[in-house]
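User: quick one, fold this
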Amino acid sequence: MLVTDEPRARQYLERIGYYRLSGYWYPFRASQVVSGAAGNPIVQVLDQFRPGCTFQHAVELYVFDKRLRLLFLDAIERIEVGLRTHIALLLGARDPWAHRNPALLRGTFARRVNRQTQRTEHHDWINRLNEYERRSQEDFVLHFRSRYCSDLPIWVAIELWDFGMLSIFLSGMQVQDVQDIAMKYGIARWELLTSWVRAINHIRNICAHHSRLWNRSPADQPKPPKHGELPILEHLAGDHFGQIRLYAVAAVIQFLLRTMNPSTSWADRLKQHVGSFPTAPGVTVGQSGFPPGWEHLPLWC
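Assistant:
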């Protein structure tokens, strides 16, 4: 790897760290195909870089990824706030403390006891919430405590939930309630919504920990729609590579944003940023799963 400005390279390494930055020069390493099973060759990554690779290429990829994470966090915040509102309105009309009432939640979440812990998943979730409430110094929490002696009602407590808690609770709601929320977004199957929210939460955690995002194959992938189920996502239904890369999460985020915030410019900003992908040997934005011509698909227009 060519280093054209050694003092500046040292500054980057001191500021960003060798280990973090090395994740961005790894894609520039050369590779070769070695023998494997018939029809299934094995690609071996070598301890040398492709010709023409420079240290600056890795830095540019790092900067691209940093801005990409900020874009995803912006979209995820909007989805999180929208889901909070819909859940609070739906369950709060039924019981101010619906999130603490096992009778209003799915049995596998609220009533099935784990043999090892002797607790339900809901019990563990409530313990986590209680700790958040106990430690909170938010003004709205302090105000509530000064006037009432009860637990926080759902429309107050939900503002303390992180996205992980929100995702777990959504999956623990009764199927019809999840279905009602899914239908607000034009999703016919509730399983799609819970899967998408889990996947979005996984991406949020990657972004929040400043980890590499652009060419990840997320561990928690969104369930793809069936053929003909969601016409605007039909291209994703038949794209296996897109389904297992970052593009799948970008697509379901955009699908949700179109309903939650129709005036959002997120799609345009993402298209502009992806279009700025740095030119470097051996790497393309296609490694993120973005298919050719994706920016002209109806989902993004």
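User: anything notable?
Assistant: The first strand starts at residue 29 and ends at 37.
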